[in-house]
Amino acid sequence: MMTGKCPKCGNALERVNAGRVNVMTQNQVAWIGVTYLCPFCSTILGVGADPSELKGEIGHEVADKIARLSMLKP
Ligand SMILES: [Zn+2]
């Protein structure tokens, strides 16, 4: 397995730690994000959308659409 290095401390990374972060737009929480942290020095290596939050949101949207469609049926 090829491992990358932390840009700050230079340690080879075979794993990273994940943290949660609020992603804000105009002072309001727009969604929950995830941070990827170096396990040695806690430098943030990246921020992205939280996959488990996204999965939940997609599930709710699909359920809402199905509920609306079933109300249209005679
Ligand atoms: Zn590091």
End-to-end separation in angstroms reads: 58 Å
Spans of at least 5 consecutive residues with low confidence? none
Strand content: 35-45%
Bound molecules: zinc ion
Rounded average pLDDT: 90
Oligomer: single chain
The gross shape turns out to be elongated
Number of domains: 1
Tell me the radius of gyration.
Answer: 19 Å
What features would you describe in this structure?
- This protein has one helix at residues 51-72; strands at residues 4-5, 12-13, 17-25, 28-37, 44-49.
- It is an alpha+beta fold.
- It has one domain (4-72).
- A three-stranded antiparallel beta sheet has the order 3-4-5. A two-stranded antiparallel sheet has the order 1-2.
- It starts with a strand and ends with a helix.
- The mean pLDDT is 90.
- The site of zinc ion has 8 residues, from loops.
- Zinc ion binds at residues 6, 8-9, 11, 38, 40-41, 43.
Provide the fold topology:
Layout: E1 4-5, E2 12-13, E3 17-25, E4 28-37, E5 44-49, H1 51-72
Antiparallel strand pairs: 1-2, 3-4, 4-5
The chain binds zinc ion.
The site of zinc ion has 8 residues, from loops.
List keywords for this structure.
74 residues; elongated; three-stranded antiparallel beta sheet; single chain; two-stranded antiparallel sheet; 39% strand; binds zinc ion; alpha+beta
